[in-house]
UniProtKB/TrEMBL annotation:
Keywords, ordered alphabetically: Signal
Domain of life, source organism: Bacteria
Signal peptide: 1-17
UniProt source species: Ascidiaceihabitans donghaensis
The protein's name in its UniProt record: Uncharacterized protein
Keyword Signal on entry: yes
Length: 132
């Protein structure tokens, strides 16, 4: 019985360690209190950008998974890394136009949004694709 309680007590900590490790593979640079840029890495698609955004929101900012993340600047020349591409995200929904997200996963339009919890799901999708 004690073993089961110990395992249950450690479960949240193990989950946190797993998500912190996920973020280490992304280059993410803060621009201000609400904006940050995810720098495109090798073979990065939209899922990885959203995964990185969720990692930043939850791990570095300590915000809840209900936080909505918006595309402020679509994929293009990075602001914080010369010669690279990136996507600027924001948590300030009043600074971007309201758009319909639809069912397409993309980062090429200003105003697209996901909650951090939904964006976090793409971390598993990205990992699954990379191990097949």
């Amino acid at each position: 019985m004690r073993y089961i309680l110990l395992v249950l007590a450690m479960s949240p900590a193990m989950g946190l360690a797993a998500t912190v490790g996920e973020e280490k593979r992304f280059q993410i640079n803060a621009l201000n209190a609400s904006d940050f840029e995810v720098i495109q890495g090798q073979n990065m698609a939209a899922a990885e950008f959203w995964c990185a955004a969720a990692s930043y929101i939850e791990n570095r900012q300590g915000l809840p998974e209900t936080t909505r993340i918006y595309v402020r600047s679509p994929r293009g020349a990075a602001r914080t890394a010369s010669g690279r591409k990136g996507v600027v995200f924001t948590t300030n929904g009043t600074s971007v136009p309201k758009v319909e997200n639809g069912l397409t996963l993309k980062v090429d339009a200003v105003g697209l949004s996901r909650t951090s919890a939904v964006a976090r799901r793409y971390c598993r999708d990205a990992f699954t694709r990379s191990t097949k």
